[in-house]
Amino acid sequence: MQKHLDQGKTALILIPEISLTPQTVQRFKSRFASLQDQVAVLHSHLSQGERFDEWHRIRKGKARIVIGARSAIFAPLKDLGIIIVDEEHENTYKQETSPR
């Protein structure tokens, strides 16, 4: 991931459960200390205003690392360098119902 960030690219980290967000954010902020203010969080438990603010930061390029549940895949990241799927074996990544 460091290689991609050094090249000016962005990163998306998908996590299976929203409850894992705080510890994942802390882990990435400590690992990439120089980019602490460039980590955004996207998930359904954010208020509409919080989600808008994070979306806007991502779109403007002020957040280069996005951490979130499945819906974060739609984050407007520019120049995406890497997608990391944490615990990819989890069933929470699968949609059980068919789209309408």
UniProtKB/TrEMBL annotation:
Keywords: ATP-binding, DNA-binding, Nucleotide-binding
InterPro entries per UniProt: DEAD/DEAH_box_helicase_dom, Helicase_ATP-bd, P-loop_NTPase
Residue ranges of every copy of the Helicase ATP-binding domain listed in the record: 1-100
PANTHER family: PRIMOSOMAL PROTEIN N
MF (Gene Ontology): 3'-5' DNA helicase activity; ATP binding; DNA binding
Species annotation: Rubritalea profundi
GO biological process: DNA recombination; DNA replication initiation; double-strand break repair
SUPFAM superfamilies recorded: P-loop containing nucleoside triphosphate hydrolases
Protein name (database record): Helicase ATP-binding domain-containing protein
